[in-house]
Every structure is written in structure tokens, then in C-alpha cells.
Specification:
- There is one protein chain.
- It contains one helix and 24 strands.
- By secondary structure, the protein is mainly β.
- 41% of the residues are buried.
Length: 360
């Protein structure tokens, strides 16, 4: 009898150890080690050129209190202010740059020269009274390609090129914010796409075939561009949620069909793909001690969610001892690191830009 019990125990222990080992082997870690360094002590929006120049474009507030667009190499050298005191631009807030896949052009949100409201409403991420412009890398040519109605109901956030360069996408406001309505505190927006190209007759840029994507009417939407194969659009929204801060990450195909919800809890924004299309990095308030947000990474179907940064955790070397909000990011072409904005205040939109190296 004693031998029989011992043998059963041995068999059970063996099965248990086998199960534990298989779980460890197949279950991905809940965190990935990263190293954070400062790229710019002041700035927000970023775009890493994928064409081979290795240049990073970014927005930075100048001494005149308005944002302008710069670019430099990853080590900070070769810095150029592309839009400062530019003869062809309104020279108010100029922000949210993204490189054309050729590396020859940048698309950006540009505050109108004259409008009824305050320039505070046109800050990066707020987007009121802004149009969409493109500018060549040398800064010698600038064109307005989308003219938004000049009132507080309208605005632009995060214009982006497709990876084949044949389309643009942006977030377009249709109803102004209502701070007494928790669902409408950032206003109501839609996603817009359009065909993009240069006229054969005079090489002027033009758009056509504007399409509106709005999965559920009257919500906040903020798009972050196309998947690397240009088959899907990534965005956040508070649709079917009670407040503006109940936002989740979604993807949808370019016709506005096949909606896929990737997150299910807390506050989520600012999703962007790895260059090979295998992963999505986004920001989330999940497990945030200070109440800010950190970057996480997941598979494109929403599985294998893993935390990347710990800016909101006391006693962590990545923490500044107060809430921080991870923002828009952009990967290096090899996918091993990315640059991203870190907001120090959601009210003033002040921030810095960091380089995040994924160590595993």
C-alpha cells in the first residue's frame, strides 16, 4: 500500500512539473525589458524616416511659444528646423509631422493664420483651426492640400501617408468639445482617407476620392495611420463607452469594414506598428501607479500584451516620480527601438521625446 501511494505521488509530481514547464515555455513574459534615453528634452510628435536617410522628424515649441518641425539624426546631430519663420507658412503651430515613404516630403498639421479662437486650441493633439500641408525635405516647397472649415467645430489630428505613398489619412473633427458631456469632452471626430499624388502636368500635389470612416456615429476617433501592408487602419475610439477616457485601440480595413477591437480595459491611445507588421505598440493606463500611461506591445490580433515601460511606477529607474503620459511613437526601420513623445501635462501638452530600446 505504501509503495502504491508513493508511485502515485511520483506520477502526479511528474505530470505537474511537466505542465509547469510547458506553461513556462509557451507563455510569453508579461513584460519586456527596455532602456529609455532622452532624444529631445522638449518636443512631442515624431516620425522616423523609413527610406534610408535615418532622419527623425519631430515637433518642438520655439521661443515664440509656437511649435515648429525639426529633423535630425538619432544621435541628435544635423538638426534642422524645417518650418521656422517660413515664408510660405502661417507660422503659428506647425506639428505632427510624418515622412512620405520616399523620404522627400513631410505631411503636417498647420494652424491657420487667422481664426476665431485661441492658438491653445490648435496645440498638437487638440487640432482646432488646423489644415493639412506637405513640405519637401529641403523646405523650399510647401502646399496646403486639405483646407478645414475655419470654426471651432472643425480641426485635424495626425495626418499620415500610406506606406505606398498613394493615400493619406487624418482625423477630422465634426463637433466641438462639450466639457459638460463626459462622452464629448474632446468633441466628435471621424476618420478621413483620400487618394494622394502629384499632377503629371505641373507636379503639384493633389488629393481626391475623400472617404469618411465612422464605425459608430458621434464618438471620439483618433487615427494613427495604416498597417505596413496598407490593408488596415489603426485608431483609438471611445465608441460604446461612457466617457472620453474610456478609449480602446481598434483596427479596421480601408473600406471601413471588419472592425477589430484590440484592448478591453482602462485608457488606451497612440497605437503604431513595428515596420514588419508583426506587433503593435500603444499606450495604456493599465497597472499605472501614478495614473499616467506607459507603452505596451501586443500582437496585431490583440494577444500577447506585454508592458514595455515603467514611467509611472515609484522607485523604478524610468520614473520621474510623477505621472507621465506616453504619446505618439515611430519605430526605427530595423524595429529594435522607437522614438516617442512623453507628455508632462495633459492641459498644456508640454512634453519631451525619448528613445526606447527593446532589449529582448
Amino acid at each position: 500500500m505504501v509503495k502504491s501511494i508513493s508511485m502515485k505521488k511520483i506520477i502526479l509530481y511528474s505530470l505537474l512539473l511537466s505542465l509547469i514547464y510547458s506553461c513556462k515555455k509557451d507563455t510569453p513574459p508579461t513584460v519586456l525589458p527596455t532602456a529609455i534615453t532622452t532624444f529631445r528634452s522638449s518636443g512631442l510628435d515624431v516620425s522616423w524616416d523609413q527610406s534610408g536617410s535615418n532622419l527623425i522628424a519631430y515637433s518642438m515649441k520655439e521661443s515664440d511659444t509656437y511649435y515648429d518641425i525639426h529633423y535630425s539624426y538619432p544621435d541628435g546631430s544635423g538638426d534642422v528646423c524645417l518650418t521656422c519663420n517660413h515664408d510660405s507658412l502661417p507660422n503659428k503651430h506647425i506639428c505632427m509631422p510624418e515622412w512620405h515613404p520616399s523620404g522627400k516630403w513631410l505631411i503636417m498639421a498647420v494652424e491657420k493664420a487667422v481664426h476665431p479662437g485661441s492658438s491653445t486650441d490648435a496645440l498638437p493633439g487638440f487640432g482646432a483651426y488646423c489644415d493639412i500641408w506637405i513640405m519637401n525635405k529641403q523646405g523650399t516647397k510647401a502646399y496646403k492640400i486639405v483646407d478645414i472649415p475655419n470654426d471651432y467645430d472643425h480641426g485635424v489630428i495626425a495626418p499620415r501617408f500610406s506606406h505606398n505613398g498613394k493615400k493619406i489619412i487624418w482625423t477630422d473633427r465634426k463637433v466641438q468639445p462639450n466639457f459638460l458631456n463626459l462622452h464629448q469632452q474632446a468633441g466628435y471626430w471621424v476618420i478621413k482617407t483620400a487618394d494622394f499624388g502629384f499632377r503629371a502636368s505641373d507636379s503639384m500635389p493633389e488629393i481626391s476620392n475623400i472617404r469618411t470612416i465612422e464605425p459608430v456615429a458621434n464618438n471620439f476617433y483618433e487615427t494613427y495611420g495604416f498597417s505596413p501592408d496598407d490593408s488596415r487602419i489603426i485608431f483609438c475610439s471611445n465608441m460604446n463607452q461612457p466617457s472620453f477616457l474610456d478609449e480602446h485601440i481598434y483596427t479596421i480595413d480601408t473600406l471601413g469594414n471588419n472592425l477589430l477591437k484590440l484592448t478591453s480595459q482602462d485608457y488606451n491611445e497612440h497605437g503604431f506598428y513595428k515596420p514588419d507588421g508583426s506587433k503593435i505598440v500603444w499606450m495604456s493606463s493599465t497597472k499605472s501607479t501614478y495614473g499616467g500611461t506607459d507603452w505596451w506591445m501586443m500582437d496585431t490580433d490583440g494577444s500577447n500584451k506585454r508592458r514595455l515601460t515603467y514611467m509611472n511606477e515609484p522607485d523604478n529607474e524610468q520614473s520621474a516620480g510623477a505621472a507621465r503620459w506616453a504619446g505618439l511613437g515611430s519605430f526605427a526601420p530595423d524595429g529594435t527601438r522607437f522614438v516617442g513623445g512623453v507628455q508632462l501635462s495633459l492641459i498644456t501638452q508640454e512634453g519631451k521625446i525619448v528613445m526606447v530600446q527593446i532589449l529582448q
